[in-house]
Structures are given as structure tokens and as C-alpha cells.
């Protein structure tokens, strides 16, 4: 029952969720203790800051939200679609995410809020890149939807209703990968400090460059096929 997911979707979802887990835990353990991969908690803290009249916190928290949205906008401009499909410019967005994370490291070390803004923008780029595939909602930077889908599946199972098993397995994969990324990121932060972000930056950069190479070879093959070579 349920959707059919090719191997590259499973691999991509797991990798990106792990990256998000690492980035988020570094942001949380850093000087501002600010989560950067999702905005529910950030918006809650923003409301609290507004109520207290703490304009410094308002500017910082509002900046994180705007930066995340700006990253998503950049991803939308580059990919121009919300449905996952091989051949689109995912490599460019992954490379952009890598550059943003690398740029955030020295700013984090200087305890500049701009570091958190760049990290949030990187996560916005990532989350907008992976949205849906064959009806499956794929969010790799936050887990509320994944836990919701698992809960719905549990409710269906208790009522004896058919389950979309692959969709539920995808939710489990994203949750497990995010958690694993957070564990690895926390250990790396203890050992390396903000240089822990070099790991997710390298993962996204290498994957992005690899995909760009694949996309180029795929386009060249299609060109030769159309030309009858």
C-alpha cells in the first residue's frame, strides 16, 4: 500500500534530515541557544519577546525567521517547482547551502548573530528544496509533520484501516536521521566547537557537486539521444 519511492528519495531524505539535525544542535548549543532549522519555537519566543518589549530579542528572532524564509525563496527561484524530480537544479541549492554554512562558522565564532541568520537561511534553502514526491510530504528540517503522520498511521492501524507503509517508513527515516544528526552534531560541537558545521557543509557541498556532475552527464546523454548519436 502507498506511494512508491525510488532509492534516491530515501537516500536524499535521510542525508538532509541528518544534516538538519547537526546544524540545529550546533545552533542550539551555541552562544544564542537558538534553533535554526524550524520556526515554531522561534515564533513562540518572538511573541514572548514582543510581550516583554525586548527589542534585541525581537530583532534576533525575527531575523532568523526572515532568513529562513529568504533561503526558501532562493530555493524556489533556483528550482522553480515544489515536486521532487531528477534533472532539476538540486545540486546548485545544495552547493548554496554548503557555502552559507561555511560562511556562518567564523561569524558564530565571533558570536555574531549573522552566523545564526546564515545557518537559518541554509536550512530554508534545504527545506524548500525537498517538499513533495508522489504525494508524500517531505520536510527534512523539522519533525512535527513526520510525528503527525506517524500518529495518524497508528490511529488507522488501531481501527484496522489500510496503511501507507512506505510513507510511514519515510517518516521514521527522517525522524531517525534527524535524531542521529543531532547526536553526532552535539558530540562534534563538544570536540570542535562551531567547526562542527564543517561536516554538514562538506556533506551538502560534495553531494551538490556530485549531483551537478550527474545532471550535466544526464543532459549530455539526452542531447546525444535526441541527435541520434
Automatic annotation (TrEMBL):
InterPro entries: DUF1275. The keyword Nucleotide-binding does not apply. The keyword Mitochondrion does not apply. Pfam families: DUF1275. Keywords: Membrane, Transmembrane, Transmembrane helix. It comes from the Bacteria. The chain crosses the membrane at residues 9-31, 57-78, 90-108, 114-138, 168-190, 196-214. This is Membrane protein.
Amino acid at each position: 500500500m502507498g506511494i512508491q519511492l525510488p532509492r534516491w528519495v530515501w537516500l536524499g531524505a535521510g542525508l538532509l534530515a541528518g544534516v538538519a539535525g547537526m546544524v540545529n544542535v550546533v545552533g542550539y548549543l551555541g552562544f544564542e541557544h537558538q534553533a535554526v532549522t524550524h520556526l515554531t519555537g522561534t515564533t513562540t519566543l518572538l511573541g514572548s519577546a514582543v510581550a516583554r518589549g525586548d527589542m534585541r530579542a525581537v530583532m534576533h528572532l525575527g531575523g532568523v525567521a526572515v532568513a529562513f524564509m529568504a533561503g526558501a525563496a532562493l530555493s524556489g527561484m533556483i528550482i522553480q517547482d515544489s515536486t521532487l524530480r531528477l534533472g532539476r537544479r538540486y545540486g546548485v541549492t545544495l552547493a548554496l547551502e554548503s557555502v552559507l554554512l561555511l560562511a556562518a562558522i567564523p561569524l558564530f565564532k565571533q558570536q555574531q548573530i549573522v552566523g545564526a541568520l546564515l545557518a537559518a537561511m541554509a536550512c530554508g534553502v534545504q527545506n524548500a528544496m525537498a517538499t513533495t514526491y508522489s504525494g508524500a510530504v517531505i520536510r527534512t528540517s523539522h519533525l512535527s509533520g513526520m510525528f503527525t503522520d506517524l500518529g495518524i498511521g497508528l490511529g488507522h492501524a488501531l481501527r484496522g484501516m489500510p496503511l501507507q507503509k512506505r510513507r510511514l517508513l519515510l517518516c521514521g527515516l527522517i525522524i531517525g536521521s534527524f535524531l542521529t544528526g543531532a547526536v553526532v552534531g552535539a558530540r562534534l560541537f563538544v570536540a570542535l566547537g562551531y567547526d562542527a558545521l564543517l561536516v554538514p557543509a562538506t556533506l551538502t557541498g560534495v553531494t551538490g557537486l556530485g549531483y551537478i556532475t550527474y545532471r550535466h552527464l544526464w543532459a549530455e546523454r539526452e542531447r546525444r539521444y535526441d541527435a541520434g548519436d
